[in-house]
Amino acid sequence: MNFERRLELRPLVVTTAIGLLFATGAFAQDMRDTIVHGADEEPATLDPSQVEPGAGGEAVIFHVYDRLLTVGADSADLLPSLATEVPTRDNGLISEDGLTYTFPLREGVVFHDGTPFTADDVMYSWDRVIEMAMPEGASDILSDKIAEMRVVDDFTFEVTLNQIDASFLYSSVLPMTASIVSQDAVEANGGVAEGEPNEFLSGNPVGTGPYQLAGWNRTENLTIEVNDGYWGTPAFDNVRWEFGLDPDVRVLGLRAGEFDTVETDPSYIADLEGVEGVIVYGEGLLLEPLHIGFNLNIPEGVLPSGDTIPLDFFHDVRIRKAFNYAFDYNAFVNGALAGFGQVNPHYVPIGVFGYDPEAPIYDTQDLAEAERLFREAGVWDEGFTVSVVVESGSLFEIQCLILKDSIERLNPNFRINVAGVAEAVFDEALAQSPVEYAMWAKNGDPAADPSAYLETYAHPDGEWGEVHGFANGYADPEAVGALIDAIAQELDPATRADLIGEAQRVLYDDPMWLIGAQEGAVTAYRDTIKGMVIQPLWPRPSMNFALYDKQN
Amino acid sequence: MTDASSPLRRPSLPRETALRVRMRRSGELAVKILSNPTTIFGFVIILLMLSMALFAPWLTTPNAPDPYQMPRDWGALRMPPGTPNHPLGTTNTGGDVLYGIIWGSRTSLQLSIIVVSVTVVIGTAIGSIAGMVGGKIDEILMRIVDVFLSIPELIFALAIAAILGPSFTNIILSLCLVFWVKYARIMRAQIILVKQNDYVDAARIMGDSRLNIYFRDILPNAATPVIVQATLDMGAIVLIGATLSFIGLAESGIAEWGVLVSEGQAGIASGRWWASTFPGLMIFLWALAFNLVGDGLRDALDPRTEGR
Amino acid sequence: MSMEMSDTKSARPVTPVTIASVRGLKVHFQSKAGRVHAVDGVDFDVRDGETLGLVGETGCGKSVTGRAFLRLLPVPPGILAGGSVMFRPQTTCPDCQGDGCERCDDSGRRPAPCPKCRGQGCTTCDQTGIESLDLLTISDARMRDIRGDRIAMIFQDPSKALNPTLTIGEQLGEVFLQHRHADLLAAAGIAEDQPGWQASALRRLASQQDRGTDRLLVKLSGAMRRKHRAIRQALDERIAAALSETQIPNPQRVMQSFPHELSGGMRQRVMIAQALACDPDLIIADEPTTALDVTVQARILDLVRQLQTSRGSSVIYISHDLSVVRHICDRVAVMYAGRVVEIGDVEQLFTNPRHPYTQGLLAAVPTTRTPRGQLAAIPGSVPELIDPGPSCRFADRCAKAHGPCASHDPALQPVSAGHDVACFLEHPITTASRARA
Amino acid sequence: MQLRDYIIRRLIVLPILLLGVSIIVFSLTRIAGSPVGVYLSHEMSAAEVLQIEQRFNLDKPLPVQYFYWLKGVFQGDFGWSGVASAPVADVFPAKFAATMELSITSAIVAVALGLWLGTYAGVRRNKMPDHITRIVAVSAASLPLFWFGILLLIVFWANLGWFPVGRSTNDIWESIAHPTGFYIIDSILAGSLTALLDALWHLVLPSITLGFGGVAIIARMMRSSLIEELQQDYVDAARAKGLPERLVLKRHAKRNALVPTVTVIGLTIAFLMQGAIAAEIIFRWPGLGRWMADAVVRGDQATIMTYVLFTSVLFLLANLVVDIIYAKLDPRVRLGD
């Protein structure tokens, strides 16, 4: 478009502005640049114990706190952070029985308030999360696994698990829950109380991270500045998150140069390609599969009035498979996602450990096969109506519309009602147990280890397994559960990879989800930012600003 | 006193002549209304819109199974006007803009007819009760009306629709909940005014029942402003309904003009002007047509305002 | 002229100086149905100091004729289709400075001299040396100078003719500010040619030509505030004086009142005070008592009469009420369908009406002698005035209509001294000049 | 004296009306469902939900909940805004200032332009400018505000690039302090011409969009009432006094024509409040309207309640002011009858 012309007006204003600013001396000294980021969601809290997975606060916590371990930019491999070594069996930091982990800690690290970092702080931080057990937070990630924690000495910390858990180390990477807070700062400001939010920490993070909080104007912006006393590689530039802007405004701001980086999604990339000064980054995939859930645990009389399906509709594997065959994957990936994404098999996303590319996946619409399965299941002639609940106006809703179009085109007796509801209503609907809809759409939470996915989304006794009654649907629920348990406890990588591949095949034959796609990790940024890299394991939007250098 | 026993029973002849006068008047009225070129323009637009709504299934292939859903062509997203099969282009989700315009006229028609008829009936009933009965009941009803009038209509409707959840049916419901107030107020004021006329007293002295007086002497004479307002509201309600769906209170994928304008706005920065422009034009024309006809009606019914 | 005129009607004998003369006045209105000839060739003179009654039925054009003097006609749809309204403004007698002398018949006023020849006589003034203006063609600015100052108007309904949102004082004050600001400034001690921005600002304020800043200046500067207060005070005195002249009790309170706070009679007194404020030469009184109670009517009429005599102004008294006209007027012009059909001294006309319409009109007035249930009426109704043809306008309703009435248009011609009639009964010779014109 | 009594009476009724409004809206929100959703994430367990319900007293019976809500309102606590991720009371002032800045500017545009246009057309009745004004007025009354705004965006922003969206250029906004939250006032206080220009530059399109409908309504009314007043006798009487046409118009006809127009200006306030929602969405104006729209779409009940409550306070106060002006303009008006 005529964007260049719009820019022409800017110098006029900017020149005047600069003139005035020099006069007042506001810009005079600070040599550091500020990376301005157009963010999607404002944090509700900056307290690691209370932040929701995937919420806006997680990205800030990621930058101002450190964890014991971290994930590098290039791979899912773990790297030392506040712990000086990654525990393995080989280096002896994991005990022979695989239950006790020892973390040697870094010395000479200080918190932003000047107090020194010791093993007590680690113990305190993790204890605090477990004890507060905030419903918003993810304390169970620690509390479910840890049997005991010990401070061995000032710089050695030990954890004993309930059972062998191959994914435990990844728990120590998560910004929510695993971030190390200053014991002194918390004790001086309210301490720890079960179920009670800590007001101080929700707005005043005291960590050891490469950045410290500089200012937070609610609903407008949040600024972090470089921590000059950082123990590790110092960050380059300060960062300011700008909040409250719609996706299209962020895209425009980026085009106009108001933002250096933005959080965006694939549907806006078309607006940014070829714009001067903007680089589109489109490598890799997010680890948040876009899924539609089948409810196998529907109580009598709760479904929306129009739904005609029997309560055990999704107990029949043929119907679940038929839905998977009927979905128009091409429309979703190449249409709605503008090609930024990949058809994804099931709950072992591409990019996590052990993903077997050889395993079969649902990746093309096969209406004939879908029809065959629907006929076999005996629903073809009678037809059905089913509602799928989803946040209105979201990408997930588009996924539902594609499902609707796919299914309804297959047979005019099939009806899918897309019940688009407000986000709060959706969250409340899903918080019910059992869920009062037969289907719903959203995306999965990212995790570094396949076990996290499999346990949450596939295990019959897992989070969704219980809510949705997967046990009613799996041909052999015990076998599936045992397989997933085995994956969680297998410490030998090769064996574990084989088991994961097997799980993929099992879940292909007995699907509990319809996964439309794995969304591409795309973003766009100004070409003044050097060192751009995106790691889907970092909190949304998967950026680590400490690695980026803004050069004017 | 019943009609039959009353020695002062009203002779039946005057009523017939009154009817004849009324018929003659309505003929004159029609001529008067149609003598205004802008009113005719409004009528023409309304007729075109109505025929579009009526012939929608023949003008386009109805989307199966639900014709009120946009047909989505996932292989032709964001296509400009002039694309084969999509003369007015497509939306972000591949919806055909022309289809949305044609079926949107049906949606709009439903919206305005349902809301106007429901609110006119409710409002007239409540306003009539308040005006005829008076006293405590009037007082209570008017205090309720006052509460409803403490918030701008659209905002009240917005809040209600938000609470009910996003769907077109809920938009209709929320508008019904809000709009009756206006008619109740107009009706009450009119009835109080008409009640003061001598012929009402005369009818009362003649011993007519209250209901009779209401239906024969008061209602026909009090109805004019309600009719004018209802005509104007046929347009206004589509405008407000479209605003609500623009804000995001209709289910997505529905063929509704406000939804289409809303969907289209994301693309305008990138030059995709068509998805918002055409449906918005339809809303404009719809509201304009009813405004013109409503104005013409008011001028004809109330000569005092002529030429304004 | 009117030798039989009773003393109550005129305090002083008048030499018949014509202050205004209407010739061939035509005012038409464009309507959807066609062109309405509301006033269609009206001729009459107004003599200095007299009260001329203009009578006729509703819609005969009498009000339009009256308004033509002030050019208060809505144009469009009104069209000034022809004719002239000549007006000779009066000025203070230069010989006696208004005290009254022989040359001005003790009135203290004399016709203003022609501005072109300074009274010497020239072609502009037809060698009379007297200023004579055609009110239909003079500039708007000149017209505004005349309105309210030389010619004033009393409206029919004072409750409509007074602005409901301004106080009586504000509305009356406007007349003085518009026409007498020099006096006001003088009273406040500001000479007409006094230099300086302060004096200019005050002058602008006093003549209602103030800019936005002038009021601010007055607020800010103490000296100006004092001067301005002096102007206001002089103004208030004049307003109070004008009000008390119309026998309004407690003028100070009335000045502060809004029109709706006064009774109808009081409001009309205010209107009269407003009309007489600048001692006009001619007052157009358009049915000034129709909207009032009967009891109030008489008092208002007396008041008008009394004020007019004491000032020597001329009055055109527009009315449909013949008894009032007979009581108050010196001469009467009877109008019918946009024409004057008969004009003459009030006694002549009332005792010896010549035009069948006038006769009918007079017969329709009930007197104490009229027997019960025998009210006379003129049969038929006023003709539509859309593009009338060449005929007597009254022919359709006239019992005495004959040959030429249907095909020719009668002209106003004298039947006796000071008594003109337009009727073929009086002038059987077909003077069909107008029909052909 | 009488006016003061009237104002006092109205001010006494105001809280009662607000109570009525809040009860209606509160019961409607709670009938439709608990507001707990904004505090939840989609993967919380039932026990966690219960914990949150207890924290916010949502497990209590409805009247008790209303009591808690009302108590909170009196203490300045309007609940938690899920949309803004902050307490409503914290976010409100800045958004309120943004909306008021836009609404007031638009109101000024609408009233000034509307009165001028109405007068211009009314004086030239049935001439060209009058016909044009009538057409514009009836069109504007039919124009969907959100569509009009989008058309302006397409032309002046996307294609010509003359005007921006949003409320400010970030760097300029950051460069000055914001004691009042009104960008124009803040920039004047800071003595920054750049900021002032930036503020005005951003205001142009949204205030035109928002003001346009108001212009139409006001111009239409002003025109018709001016025409009516110009036919009144007192206008001729003023002319008969010799007043110049300027004064006849200004002091007599126009002033009186304002009386009915003022009531329409009162209606325009409602129009502006309603329109602000769409205008703020389209122009990305960080005000109450956009907040409300977000809240509506995301089911944020605390925000909806607060917005409705404040809107009706503003609306009722504005109407009171209109009544007072009305009484001031027309001495015949007796308020409260």
UniProtKB/TrEMBL annotation, chain A:
Organism from which the protein derives: Flavimaricola marinus
GO cellular-component term (any): outer membrane-bounded periplasmic space
GO molecular function: peptide transmembrane transporter activity
Gene: dppA_2
Entry protein name: Periplasmic dipeptide transport protein
Boundaries of every Solute-binding protein family domain copy: 80-462
Gene3D superfamilies, alphabetized: Dipeptide-binding Protein, Domain 3, Periplasmic binding protein-like II
Main location: periplasm
Location in the cell: Periplasm
Family to which the UniProt record says this protein belongs: Belongs to the bacterial solute-binding protein 5 family.
Automatic annotation (TrEMBL), chain B:
Record keyword Lipid metabolism present: no
Topology of the protein relative to the lipid bilayer: Multi-pass membrane protein
Any one Pfam family match given in the protein's UniProt record, by short name: OppC_N
Gene3D superfamilies from the UniProt entry: MetI-like
Keyword Cell membrane among UniProt keywords: yes
Domain of life: Bacteria
Annotated localization: Cell membrane
Alphabetized UniProt keyword annotations: Cell membrane, Membrane, Peptide transport, Protein transport, Transmembrane, Transmembrane helix, Transport
Transmembrane segments: 40-60, 111-134, 154-181, 236-261, 273-294
Start and end residues of each ABC transmembrane type-1 domain: 105-294
One of the GO BP terms on file: peptide transport
Main location as per UniProt: membrane
Record SUPFAM superfamilies: MetI-like (SSF161098)
Protein name: Putative D,D-dipeptide transport system permease protein DdpC
Organism from which the protein derives: Flavimaricola marinus
Lineage: Bacteria, Pseudomonadati, Pseudomonadota, Alphaproteobacteria, Rhodobacterales
From TrEMBL, chain C:
SUPFAM superfamilies: P-loop containing nucleoside triphosphate hydrolases
Membrane-topology annotation of the record: Peripheral membrane protein
Signal peptide: none
InterPro entries associated with the record: AAA+_ATPase (IPR003593), ABC_Ni/Peptide_Import (IPR050388), ABC_transporter-like_ATP-bd (IPR003439), ABC_transporter-like_CS (IPR017871), Oligopep_ABC_C (IPR013563), P-loop_NTPase (IPR027417)
One BP term from GO: peptide transport
Keyword Cell membrane attached: yes
Any one GO molecular function term: ATP binding
Subcellular location per the Swiss-Prot or TrEMBL entry: Cell inner membrane
Domain spans labelled ABC transporter: 22-362
Predominant subcellular localization, coarse grouping: membrane
Annotated NCBIfam families: oligo_HPY (TIGR01727)
Recorded family membership: Belongs to the ABC transporter superfamily.
Protein name: Nickel import system ATP-binding protein NikD
UniProtKB/TrEMBL annotation, chain D:
Keywords carried by this UniProt record: Cell membrane, Membrane, Transmembrane, Transmembrane helix, Transport
A cellular component annotation (GO) from this entry: plasma membrane
Transmembrane segments: 12-32, 102-123, 135-158, 199-219, 257-284, 304-326
Localization terms from the record: Cell membrane
Natural source organism: Flavimaricola marinus
Family annotation (PANTHER family): DIPEPTIDE TRANSPORT SYSTEM PERMEASE PROTEIN DPPB-RELATED (PTHR43163)
InterPro entries in the record: BPD_transp_1_N, MetI-like, MetI-like_sf
Domain ABC transmembrane type-1: 96-326
Entry's family note: Belongs to the binding-protein-dependent transport system permease family.
PROSITE patterns given in the database record: ABC_TM1
Membrane topology label: Multi-pass membrane protein
Pfam families linked to this entry: BPD_transp_1, BPD_transp_1_N
GO biological process: transmembrane transport
Highest taxon in the source lineage: Bacteria
CDD domains the record matches: TM_PBP2
Protein name per UniProt: Dipeptide transport system permease protein DppB
